[in-house]
Amino acid sequence: MAVIARMLVRRILVLIPLLLGVVAFVFVIMRFSDSKPEYAYFQGANPTPEQIRQFQEENGLLDPLPLRYLRFVGDLLQGDMGTSVLTKRPVLDSVVTAMPLTMQLTILGLLIAVVLALLFGVTAALYRDRWPDHLIRVVSLVGVAAPAFWLALLMIQWLAVGQGWFPTGGYINPADSLSGWLRSMTLPALSLSLPVAAQLTRIIRTSVVEELDKDYVRTAIGSGLPPIVVVGRNVLRNALINPLTVLGLRIGYLLGGAVVIETIYSLPGMGQLMINAVRDGDPAVVQGVVLTIAAGFVVVNLVVDVLYLLVNPRLRSAG
User: Fold this and answer.
1) Structural contact between residues 195 and 143, judged by C-beta atoms closer than 8 angstroms
2) Within a 13 Å sphere around the CA of 213, how many CA atoms are in the beta-carbon half?
3) What does the pLDDT read at residue 317?
4) pTM of the model
5) Of residues 163, 182, 160, the one with CA closest to residue 172
6) CB count in 10 Å sphere of residue 157
7) What is the dihedral of CA 186, 191, 196, 199, to 10 degrees?
8) 300 contact partners, CB below 8 Å, separation of at least 6
9) Strands (E), 87-138
10) Which residues contact 241 (CB under 8 A, 6 or more apart)?
11) Cα–Cα distance between 143 and 150 in angstroms, integer?
12) 109: how many CB neighbours lie within 10 A of its CB?
């Protein structure tokens, strides 16, 4: 445990400058974007140059960029992401309101992706070079190449409009109807998860095949242990170490992909919040959403690193 604690501390120390770098990157990019808070504030009006300058002075927009960045970081450390110039509502409140739906979609998509990848990846490895393996490899290759938004449009056309099994969009709170929530989230979660499931399937298949070729597997099966016991107890535990690291990156993809999927299915999550802010020219909200997603990606990878340490005894010994 002491080794794990030391490695965890090292990763957290690396995480701090990484988060500061993410904040700096997003801050600078937003400063050079076309979205200007002074024009969003006077949207629909015809402000004079004096009114625009007064707004800029009151909000510190004329200060040097390094000073504005330090002020922004100081506000972030106090939990202040700024205020929407359109709604006059704190950005943090909007993010907190929208985040639960995005987390629901991401977690549901992750569960579907992991279950499908384990099922098809292990099956392909056990039936190596036979027709189930060939079929799964072809389907997974198509899944890797298929963009999530294209899958979303196909599912709406086939399963929602064509068959009427699912709604074409909208969100039902699980507190109001659990079955309604499940129906409203199934197609978005499938659209988001299938490309990830296809990628993980190929990785799991390769890892399991490599593990099955090792001497200890042949020895265990030759000694009379049932193959299902050997695969379940030893092969999977060793073979899933490498896919675990890839899963961390894929969770980041799920968070980012949720932005597009929420827009297609009209889900009031982080994606819809950001798209509306971009359309309305509200840079503070765009900045807050992007920072939240980026920070979530970094934190998720830290958690995956910790899990990797827990399941990989060789790495703990090296540490």
Assistant:
1) yes
2) 8
3) 52
4) 0.82
5) 182
6) 12
7) 120
8) 248, 251, 252, 255
9) none
10) 207, 308, 311, 312
11) 11
12) 29
Q: What pLDDT, on a 0 to 100 scale, did the predictor assign at position 112?
A: 93
Predicted pLDDT at 189: 92
Quick one: 225 exposed, middle or buried, by C-beta within 10 A (0-12, 13-18, 19+)?
A: middle
Helices (H) and strands (E) counted in the chain, each on its own, are 15, 0
pLDDT by residue (tens digit) across 64-99? 878 888 888 888 888 888 888 778 888 889 899 888
What distance in Å separates the CA atoms of residue 184 and residue 174, rounded to the nearest whole number?
Answer: 10
**pLDDT surpassing 60 at residue 315:** no
pLDDT per position as a tens digit, 193-213: 999 899 899 998 988 888 888
Among all chains, which residue has been given the structure tokens 């597997």?
Answer: 217
Task: Determine the Cα–Cα distance for residues 312 and 54; give it in Å rounded to an integer.
Answer: 59
Q: How far is CA 192 from CA 25, 44, 171, 201, in A?
A: 27, 37, 16, 15
Separation between Cα atoms, residue 101 and residue 182, nearest integer Å: 12
Q: Do the Cβ atoms of 41 and 88 come closer than 8 Å?
A: no
208 close to 304: Cβ distance less than 8 angstroms: no
By CB atoms closer than 10 A (0-12, 13-18, 19+), residue 45 is exposed
